[in-house]
Write a structure and sequence with these properties.
Four copies of one chain form a homotetramer. Chain A is of the alpha/beta class. The first copy, chain A, has two domains: 156 residues, Rossmann fold, CATH 3.40.50; 178 residues, Dihydrodipicolinate Reductase, domain 2, CATH 3.30.360.10. Helix content of chain A is 31%, strand content 23%. In chain A, strands 8-11-7-12-15-14-13 form a seven-stranded mixed β-sheet. Chain A is globular, with a radius of gyration of 19 Å. Chain A starts with a strand and ends in a 7-residue tail after the last helix. At the A-B interface, strand 7, strand 8, strand 11, strand 12 and helix 11 of A face strand 7, strand 8, strand 11, strand 12 and helix 11 of B.
Chain lengths: 348, 348, 348, 348
Amino acid sequence: MRVAILGATGAVGQTFIRLLAGHPWFRVAEVAASERSAGKRYADATRWIEGDLPADVAGLTVTTCDPRAVSSPIVFSALDSEVAGEVEGTFAAAGRLVLSNAKNYRMEPDVPLVIPEVNAAHLALLDTQRARRGWAGGIVTNANCAATMAAMALAPLHEAFGARRVFLATMQAVSGAGYPGVPSLDILGNVIPYIGDEEPKLEREMQKMLGRLNEGAVVPASFAVSAHANRVAVENGHTVCLSVEFDRAPSLEEAAQVLRGWRGASAVRGLPSAPDRPLHFFESDDRPQPRRDALRGRGMTVSVGRLRVDPLFHLKFVAMGHNTIRGAAGGSILNAELLVATGRAGVA
Amino acid sequence: MRVAILGATGAVGQTFIRLLAGHPWFRVAEVAASERSAGKRYADATRWIEGDLPADVAGLTVTTCDPRAVSSPIVFSALDSEVAGEVEGTFAAAGRLVLSNAKNYRMEPDVPLVIPEVNAAHLALLDTQRARRGWAGGIVTNANCAATMAAMALAPLHEAFGARRVFLATMQAVSGAGYPGVPSLDILGNVIPYIGDEEPKLEREMQKMLGRLNEGAVVPASFAVSAHANRVAVENGHTVCLSVEFDRAPSLEEAAQVLRGWRGASAVRGLPSAPDRPLHFFESDDRPQPRRDALRGRGMTVSVGRLRVDPLFHLKFVAMGHNTIRGAAGGSILNAELLVATGRAGVA
Amino acid sequence: MRVAILGATGAVGQTFIRLLAGHPWFRVAEVAASERSAGKRYADATRWIEGDLPADVAGLTVTTCDPRAVSSPIVFSALDSEVAGEVEGTFAAAGRLVLSNAKNYRMEPDVPLVIPEVNAAHLALLDTQRARRGWAGGIVTNANCAATMAAMALAPLHEAFGARRVFLATMQAVSGAGYPGVPSLDILGNVIPYIGDEEPKLEREMQKMLGRLNEGAVVPASFAVSAHANRVAVENGHTVCLSVEFDRAPSLEEAAQVLRGWRGASAVRGLPSAPDRPLHFFESDDRPQPRRDALRGRGMTVSVGRLRVDPLFHLKFVAMGHNTIRGAAGGSILNAELLVATGRAGVA
Amino acid sequence: MRVAILGATGAVGQTFIRLLAGHPWFRVAEVAASERSAGKRYADATRWIEGDLPADVAGLTVTTCDPRAVSSPIVFSALDSEVAGEVEGTFAAAGRLVLSNAKNYRMEPDVPLVIPEVNAAHLALLDTQRARRGWAGGIVTNANCAATMAAMALAPLHEAFGARRVFLATMQAVSGAGYPGVPSLDILGNVIPYIGDEEPKLEREMQKMLGRLNEGAVVPASFAVSAHANRVAVENGHTVCLSVEFDRAPSLEEAAQVLRGWRGASAVRGLPSAPDRPLHFFESDDRPQPRRDALRGRGMTVSVGRLRVDPLFHLKFVAMGHNTIRGAAGGSILNAELLVATGRAGVA
């Protein structure tokens, strides 16, 4: 199945290309970027950051981000939010299924914001979206990278015990800011206790993802969230410390069992990008750690550890996952696989 | 005034020596360490880590940590907790004033745990201590390094609005673990979401320091604390994210005014190690940062910033300070200066 | 084929276990370590540093480093040089083939110091060794990790043009110092321009590896080497800058062709741990880089780049490779594979 | 004495302002930058990177880089090389003394390239320059930051023993690339073995600085240089490994004595920015190190260590200094002080 990458020359675009190399279903047939890159060989239009540029993609000619220039039915969007809004809408209107990493459509009531194992059911919003907007295609988004780690770790506990209040503090990797992104003078031997617009995103996206679908709309989860977002000198892997109050207080052992046993939506199992287990639960007290655990499950497993009693709420624990794989391109690809597998891709 | 350093060859001991170089009141006259180092020239007994070893200390002969071998009336203890308990007690019994960085005596009801600007009044516990233990000297402790940053930032707000519940997540520098301390393979490109025994210390020490003195005893502050302690790839400077609920909810501007205006106990102003201001309040949204702000006030000022409304409690903000200066040796020296200035040193 | 690991609980021992997981020929059947660990389950005797401990090794009981307690015919030694000398000799005398990472035997005239692609022929020294020492088994060593990178990059050029003088400056990863190894306070934001005993090792080991076998002995290469060894804040991957004078000055293009075309000893190709190409030659001017290139060829390929004219000698260039894989455990395993494949393992 | 800063809003411009705060002779009276910043308050036109912006500079209005808008007789230029050529020439023609950090004029035969302690005599080129160009003012440049460290360490040895061939490998701090400069994804856990145009600059600037003045022109030193330039994860401090061949081979002790005793040009001693000693010589084998030694002499002292015999040439050793202080702004300020003190400032 032919797929296109929008914003193919940036850091997220490159991650899509890297993760799709050798994919059993999808083949990167088209790469689109800004006017400045259009017409060039992909290898000449980009400064490849990590690993080797796949040979079959290197030779593609970059097109503009215009549905008339791009024919693939499935389109992965790595566009910046400045342009994603308009471009992604144009592609959806033109009958393409757009898997987006940008924030623009995430909070639209008729746009699914999906982590497959957590809220696959929200994909039904695509029907609402097509009906309401008259789009032949559609847009499916994945969440902010830090919200993804927090939501995946919280999902089984919320399902079992009902989260009511969530305090979270993040320590986020520099790759989350793209390339060139964070200047080295800002982060070597340092912590930046601020990431623009990150805290509100964390708070509202978690509520939407853990919300319930009701009559074609998502009712956000009613828990309240307070987030502290920090940037640290880590290449890959966002770490999140959580303290959670529940409707029904679980014992440590109950909570551990829920985390250990959780597999997420059954429709996801066995998909090409699905990890053996969406969560890995650590018993040892000094894990998870980004450098040691971010690549677990080829970057698609979120690791959870340090489960303990919280003196103010009920439980505290730490979640960590790979921000550019599970938290961005890999999440989009898994969304696309699920749509294809469930016949929702809307593409022949 | 002659002073001695116990545990002089370790990282904290070296910091004492560095900070006391050129001190207007105190002169390092004696250096004590383990049997293994005793009898050696100090310069030969230690592996000096940072800056230049002051020439007058380099030539001192290391003694054992025995009050019969050490005559200085004021003794700064950089001892590990394995030996601090017994040694510090022996020195106090022998009439010396011991300023301790170890955890052993911090939670003893008759031992002051003091940040001078915050709870100088607690030094009155020395009377209780001397009466109860029959010591001619006494022990004064300073807090865990991360607890110090959190307590200093919280102190004026607690005084004004009454803290009720406190969430905190720390990102602590590697120098807090001493030398050799954290292996580089554990921290390069990494976060360790665990520091042994740190969270309980943070929780109980803040309550004691912000408690009230009542009839010769400290009534701990009644707020509850939940702490997440993390180690990050920073050399110096502990960063703490706080969310706080108060008895009376302040507006942002009320809270900012309190933080901006706070000077702490007046007896401390003008002491040789006292900074111009104990707190520095940042209006800009990406500060404080350890590499840029830890040395503010020669390492004795705690920086506070990112004050904003907390969706769960009332306020959130970030505090940061130099862990081996304000959070350890510098704090002890300021305690000693205050004791001398207020005639409490008990030494002629 | 059953193999044993000596010094199995340390950092190099763990790397052996990680690299041998799923090996098509070798199975880790025995793990040996110091008296202190002996008798424990391996999982309990070690603090596993990176990735997951293979389940079949986790349950092995640790034995002492004594040939009476270890029956495997092939023995990988990750022992420290303090004990490697005696222990490895005992195993060789007891008929085992010992693949050693320690420095003790490297410069012995009858002990092969081998990088398979470079000087496989030196393995013939085993005959001399057995004859001279009366050992039923034998010892084969691999080189210092930085010497390995330099020797592999230099080998084809030396063969083609005859190296005469070699300058090299290394920037070595912290994993080369083992675990706990380099304290983080020594290396964060820092360079240490010194690694104990490294420069002489670099100089003499390169001469031996690039020497010729003559009548059962190695005649060291006659080039002179001057080395500057530095430690930098890199987790994995040693980078080496080289300036080389040759007997016959090659043009840049001649040299590039030699580096691009080199495959090394044909007997090595197709061995399980052999990379597709022992050298990867970069045309782009800012490579190789340790974080981006160390894992090339699953850590067994050495990357070379920045080939340019040297104003003093003839050529300068940069070589970089994975120090704990190609430069240590992976190199030993490839040596063992070559010995087995060529019938030199001397074990039925 | 009033001074102006050209390019005041960038990283080097900020360093000038920081170093000139409280200067006994010079007062920053004017700040100039691009059209975009002109007219703004300085505090609003810049993103201040390190420490506190001095209050008296914060309120200055930024002007354009035009001598009609700037009246100070002494002008420190922190301009990028894209614009430095034209702008600096205009200021010199307009009668100002320009102290430049840019590369544009460094290799002009009539422009002094000066490290005051090393080649103060070259300032006599100003006469040639004024005569030849008809400028009322003039331009004095300081060297590339890494060339400065290497030249200062080599200067006394060259003077005593005559350098003939110099091999050098640098490990350079990220602050050398300005701000935002090196992306964190490029340098965390990494080495970049390439800095654009750095190696040729190192080679030719060292020859000029260590050259002799002869009849109004500099005869470059005749030694040959081969440089390997690398970027490492260090904030401040360039480290340089050198191997040197001399006309007359010194013993280690002779060389050490020369390095220990060197004070440089006597006219420099006592100037406000001159360090007590231009070189600090380390006997211990693991120094100098950037994080521990870059701020020696308030960043103006270059540290030298690891002096040992070179197997190919005569000596090897390591030099390290603060790249944005001694290697940039601090060097310019010391040049200006020397010009004023020797009556060469040409300004009343």
